[in-house]
Amino acid sequence: MDLLAWQGRWLEVVLRDGWEFVRRRNATGVVGVVAATPDREILLVRQYRVPVATETIELPAGLVGDGGFPEDPLAAAGRELEEETGWRAGRLRLLCQAPSSAGLTSETLLLVMAEDLVQVGSGGGIPGEESIRVERIPFDRVAAWLGERIREGAVVDAKIWAALWFLGVPSASGTELTVGDQGATIWGGEPS
Q1: What is the pLDDT of residues 82-118, one digit of tens each?
Q2: pLDDT of 135-148, one tens digit each?
Q3: Which residues fall within 8 angstroms of residue 161, CB to CB, at 6 or more apart?
Q4: How distant, in Å, are the alpha carbons of 44, 75, 88 from that of 37?
Q5: 187-192: long-range contacts (C-beta < 8 A, 24 or more apart)?
Q6: What is the DSSP letter of 70?
Q7: Would you place residue 128 in the very low, low, confident or very high pLDDT band (cuts 50, 70, 90)?
Q8: Which CATH number goes with the domain that contains 44?
C-alpha cells in the first residue's frame, strides 16, 4: 500500500515497502520522440531545466494525458513533436518503453519513432510556457556535434544516443571526452 509523504501541484513523494519515490500527479505517461528530417538530420531541442540548473539538449518529449485526462501516447508524441520542433509526422510508431530513473520515479518513457516528417512551423514550445531552441543536426555530424557540446559543458540527455541507434546513425570516430581535474574518460569513439 502506498503512503503519500508529500504532495505538490505536479508531483508527489510516495512511500512503498520502505522505498521513497516520486510520481506525477497530472499525467498518465511520458513520450520521447525520435525524429529525423527528410535531409537526414536528427531533431533535438535545447531548453533550460531548473532541476539541473542549466540548458539541456534533449529529444523532443512531453507528457501524455497532461492534466490527468486519457490520451493516446502516439497522439501525444505527435503533438509534442509539432509544438517543440515545428515538424509534423506522417507516421508514428512505438519503439520501446523504459524507466526514466527506476530508483527515483515510477515514470516510464515511451520512445516513439516519427517518420515522414513535414515542417509546418518554427517550433519553440508553447508560447509563454516554454523557451525551446530547435537543433537540426546532420546524421554524419551529430556524434561529433554532441561531443563538442559536452566538452563545452552542455548536459546531453542519454536518450539521444538510443535515438541515434534506432536511426542507424554510426557513432563518432576518434572522439574522446574527458571531465574533471583527473581527465577521466567519460566517452570515447573508435577510429573508423
Answers
A1: 999 999 999 999 999 999 999 999 999 999 999 999 9
A2: 999 999 999 999 99
A3: none
A4: 11, 19, 10
A5: 187/147, 187/150, 189/143, 189/147
A6: -
A7: confident
A8: 3.90.79.10
* 156, 57 Cβ separation under 8 angstroms: yes
- Domains in the chain: how many in total? 1
Total residues belonging to the chain: 192
Q: Tell me the C-alpha distance between 151 and 176, whole Å.
A: 10
Residue 37 and residue 117 in contact, taking contact as beta carbons nearer than 8 Å: yes
Q: How far apart are the first and last CA of the chain?
A: 53
Question: Structural domain of residue 71, as residue ranges?
Answer: 26-177
Closest CA to 129 of 65, 63, 76: 63
Residue identified by cell 571531465 is 179
Shortest CA distance to 157 belongs to which of 86, 52, 78, 81? 52
Q: pTM of the entire structure?
A: 0.86
